[in-house]
Amino acid sequence: GFAAAQTELGVGPSTISNHITALEQRLGVSLCQRGRGGFKLSDKGKLVFAETQRLLRNMEEFSVGVSALKGQLVGEIRVGLVDAIATDPNARLHAAFADYLSVPNDIRFEVTQNQPQELLQKVLSGAIDVAIGSFPHKAAGLSYQPLHRETHALYCGAKHPFFGMPAPQLNLQTLLRADMVGRGYWRDRHHAELGFENIKAVVYEIEPQLILIRSGRFIGYLPEHYAAHWVAQGELRCLSPVAPSFDCGFDLVVKKGLKPSRALASLIESIRAAHAAEQFD
């Protein structure tokens, strides 16, 4: 509606209304209903919106095609990532981007972070071009290319009773009965397979999980690379010498059957090459 457009465009609602009215007069159709009843596109407005999107895509493809004649990588690339991967030494995305952008280019990046399932849905819908993360529940219609693995271990915070408990007193059964914070996208079955009985809090990102663990009220799994700083600072204790740790595979995901642009194909190759080089270092 106009209220949302007002913030995005930095102009008042009356100015937006005038522009829409002028556009409707030029096209000879009513594009939307607006007023006290709210904002809604008309049927013809929906068609104009779809055709406008198609026009913009064609213009971008024209620009990309012409620039390709000069040997440049051109276009907009939308990448989706899971959270808390910047500290992972096995995640070589910084090296991939450095290699990718070392050639002449006019690339515009849009990089977002989302939960794993949301990333998969966005790849399917075309909202993003490529997703990178660990995906415990695979979606059909997508191609998954393995990149690297990430180890998760169990931790407690400095205020938790387990933190100062002597190692001989910590046993697996005690840990399995403790209040735990789990991740919603793993679902209950994952925690049950590990043997934990009391999932008292659920999060969908790793940062809020860390906050709850540091509260001293919960134990929970974190990526080892992400927890390392807090362990060194004496804020976390790793409990995985007693409790099981596990690995998550990270994949590069694109839509199955996708015919990528030259710019996107080059990025995918840079990401794969960077992670292949890491495996053979």
Brief overview:
This protein is α/β, with parallel strands linked by helices.
Please describe what this structure looks like:
The protein has 281 residues and is α/β, with parallel strands linked by helices. It has 3 domains: 63 residues, Arc Repressor Mutant, subunit A; 106 residues, 3-Layer(aba) Sandwich (D-Maltodextrin-Binding Protein, domain 2); 97 residues, D-Maltodextrin-Binding Protein, domain 2 (3-Layer(aba) Sandwich). The protein is 42% helix and 25% strand. The strands form 3 sheets. Strands 3, 4, 5, 6, 9, 10 and 11 form a 7-stranded mixed sheet that branches. Strand 7, helix 7 and strand 8 form a beta-alpha-beta unit. Helix 4 packs across helix 10. The protein starts with a helix and ends with a helix.
Structural class: alpha/beta
Tally of individual domains: 3
The CATH architecture of the largest domain would be 3-Layer(aba) Sandwich
Top CATH class of the largest domain: Alpha Beta
How much strand?
25-35%
Radius of gyration: 24 Å
Low-confidence stretches: none
